[in-house]
């Protein structure tokens, strides 16, 4: 069984924080569905839009998830110290961006769920490379090993409410693609005409 040192955990937290910025940009460019195109590797990724508990500002957090019998589940792998988890605990009314749509939603902590281990395993399998980066193999770990390693993890259930549309959602930067294509096409044509 893998034991993660505090130094390794800090490095993982910083690495995921930087990688999450990139993933959020991909979603905003309208390519969120592509991130979910190979879930065995990249994982199943959704974005949670929540309110900062101190600032009141909108915050965006890409997380891995599992869809189990129509319900969404995700985990705060760094436990109760995760800022996004604490924000959601303070205000559980959120938005969720998924490959097939955008919804208002409500988050509920279900860390004491009777099927916690099965749900946790499903989320970790749904995380693709992220679980392996943390030194976990959810497909091969015994229930006892999984329980020990994830005892500080928090499990959340996300219940979708109403579909959302309008500005400020996934794909809000999709306009970049036509502009980039136009500019690059123009540069290519100008170069060809000079030669």
Structure explained in plain terms:
- With 195 residues, the protein is α+β, with helices and mostly antiparallel strands.
- The chain has one domain: Electron Transport, Fmn-binding Protein, Chain A (Pnp Oxidase, Chain A, Roll), CATH 2.30.110.
- It contains 8 helices and 7 strands; from the N terminus they run H-H-H-E-E-E-E-H-E-E-H-H-H-E-H.
- Strands 2-1-5-6-7-4-3 form a 7-stranded antiparallel sheet, sandwiched between helices.
- The longest helix has 23 residues, at 6-28.
- The radius of gyration is 19 Å and the shape is globular.
List the domain count as a whole number. 1
Quote the CATH topology. Pnp Oxidase, Chain A
For the residues shown, what is the average pLDDT? 86
The portion of residues forming beta strands comes to: 15-25%
Give the fraction of residues assigned to helices: 40-55%
Main sheet: strands, sense, barrel: 7 strands, antiparallel
Number of helices: 8
Order of helices and strands: HHHEEEEHEEHHHEH
- Tell me the distance between the termini: 63 Å
CATH level 1 name: Mainly Beta
Widest β-sheet, arrangement of strands: 2-1-5-6-7-4-3
Give the low-pLDDT segments.
Answer: none
CATH superfamily: Electron Transport, Fmn-binding Protein, Chain A
Structural class: alpha+beta
Number of strands: 7
Radius of gyration: 19 Å
Shape: globular
Architecture (CATH level 2) name: Roll
